[in-house]
C-alpha cells in the first residue's frame, strides 16, 4: 500500500497468462485466506481460474497474514486499500486491466462501497448478502430495535481479530504483529452501541446515500432465509447502471453452498456475468429478466427444505404486483372493512415470544431457521383469514397500518406474517420490527406520549410466497421478540384499535415463468486437501427451569476441527451463545458469547479465548468482556472491559 503496509494475497492464475493476459476477480475480506476460509476459497477461486480469470483473495489490513490492525468495519482506510488493490491488479502483466469484485456479507458490502469510489479499472461487481444501508438493513439494528446478532457478530470479529498471522508467511515478526492486534483491535460492540440511531457513523459507506456514485454493472444476490434480501430490491429500483438480481431459498451463503435441493450452479452464473462485463462477450446476460426469484411454497416449519419454483420480473417495481388490502378485527382478517365493530385489543407479550425465531441471518441450517410459530403466537395478538378458497401468491414487502396507544414512552412492536396449515403448524413467512420511538425515521427518534393515539406503518421484509388454498394467513403482533431483538427498557402494553390494515403485494401467476432456463445444481472446484480431526457440532436448545423460572436459549456453533494437509496446520473454532432471562423480568435479560480459536503446527500452538456479556437496565447497556491469548501453555496477553453505555431511546 502507499503507506508501506503489506497486504497478503493468494492468486489463482489460468495457464498461459504469460502470453495471454486475462481479466481478474477480487474477493477482499478479513476472514483469513490461509486457514479458516482456505477450503471454501479453493472451491470458488480455482473455478474462476479454470474458466479464464485470475482470481485474487486478499486479507484486509489487520487480518490473516496482512500487516496492520483491524479496528472496525468499512473504514476509509479499508476502502482506499481496496481501490489500490484493484489498480495494482490491473497493472500486472497477467491482467487485461479489467477487474471485477465478488463478495458475500463483508465482501459484498465493500464491493458496493468500492464501486461507489472512483476506481477506473473496476468494471463489474457481484454483491451477495450485503446492504446499501448500514443502519436499516444490517446485523446491528432493525426498525430502530437492536438485534442480538449485534452482540453475536461483534463477538465473531472479536474472536477473528485475536488471531496472529502465520509465522511461515511473515517470519519472526509474527508475535509482535499478534500483540499489536490483541491490544489495538478493540471491542467493536462498544463502538456500535455508541451509535443507536442513524447518524453519520452509519451513513458512511451506506451507498443508499448516493446510488448514482456506482457506475459499473451490479449483480445483487441474496436468499430468503438471509437477513439481506431487502437490499436487492432497493438496488434494482435505484441504481442507474446495468443490473441483475437473484434471490433463492438459501440463507447467508454463496448459492453454490446452499444445500441439497436449495443450492444452484452459482459459479456458472457468476462466470456468465464476468464474461459479459470483463471479457465483453455478448452472451445475452443483460437481455434477461432483471430479477430471478424463488417463489416459495407452503412448507412445514419442522423441516429445512424450501420447495417452490423460479419466477422472473423484468423490472422493479413490477407493474404486475397489486396491493390488496385486508382489515383487522379481534382475531380476524377481513377482505372488507364493513361491519367490523370498533374494539380495543391490548397486548403485553411475555419475553418468551422470540425464542423460536431463529437467527437474523440464517445459514439455512435446521438449527437456525424459525421453528413452529404456534408457541410464539400464544404470547401475541393473532389475526387469521378464513381458510383460503384459492392460492394467494405475494411478491414484495407486506405492510401493516395500525392505530395504537402505549403505556410506556418507549416500546417495540414485532409483526410476523405466518402460513397456517390445516394441521395447525404455523410457519413464519416474513416479519418486521419497529421501535415506536423511530416511527418517523431512524435519525431523530421521538418518545411516545402515554395515552396518545398514533397511526403507524410497519414494512415487513420482502418475500415471495405462495399461500395455498385450504391454509390460513396469520398476522401475529407482539411487544417483545427476545432474544432476536433486545427488549424495550420497560415492559410495554399496546392498545390496538380495530380496522387496522394488512396490505399484501399480490402477484398473479405468469405462464412465462415456466419457460425460464434451468439454473443448474451446484458445481465447485476441487478443494485443497484436509483431514477431519473432529466433526462440526451444531445445537440450538431452549430450556425453562420451572423451579427457578429461568429461561435459556443456548446455541452451540463449533466448526469442524481440521488439519490443512498442504501446510500442516490444525485449525479449530468453538462458539457458545447463551441468551437468558429470569421471571419475565426485563432487567434480567442477558446475552453471552464465548469463543475459542486455535492454530497449531508442530511445537507452535496458539489459542485465544474471547467472552462478551451484554446486560441492561432501563437506562444503560452494560458490556463486560475478556480476551485471553495463549502461546502453548503460557498466557501471553489478557485484557478485560467493563463499560456502561446510555440507552438512546432504544
Give a brief description.
The chain has 650 residues and is α+β, with helices and mostly antiparallel strands. GO terms for molecular function: dipeptidyl-peptidase activity.
Reading off the top of the CATH hierarchy, the class of the largest domain is best stated as: Alpha Beta
| Beta-strand residue percentage | 35-45%
- Report the CATH topology name of the largest domain: Rossmann fold
Give, in spatial order, the strands making up the sheet with the most strands: 1-3-2-4-5-8-9-10-11
Poorly predicted regions are none
Helix content: 10-25%
Secondary structure topology:
Layout: E1 9-12, E2 22-29, H1 38-50, E3 54-59, H2 76-90, E4 95-104, H3 106-115, E5 122-128, E6 141-142, E7 145-146, H4 149-160, H5 167-170, H6 174-184, H7 188-193, H8 200-203, E8 218-223, H9 229-238, E9 243-248, H10 266-277, E10 291-296, E11 308-313, E12 322-329, E13 332-334, E14 344-347, H11 374-377, E15 381-384, E16 392-396, E17 399-406, E18 412-420, E19 426-435, E20 454-459, E21 463-467, E22 472-478, E23 494-497, E24 501-506, E25 530-534, E26 537-545, E27 550-558, E28 561-564, E29 569-582, E30 590-601, E31 604-616, E32 620-631, E33 634-646
Parallel strand pairs: 2-3, 2-4, 4-5, 5-8, 8-9, 9-10
Antiparallel strand pairs: 1-3, 6-7, 10-11, 12-13, 12-24, 14-23, 15-22, 16-21, 17-20, 17-23, 17-24, 18-19, 18-22, 25-28, 26-27, 27-29, 28-29, 29-30, 30-31, 31-32, 32-33
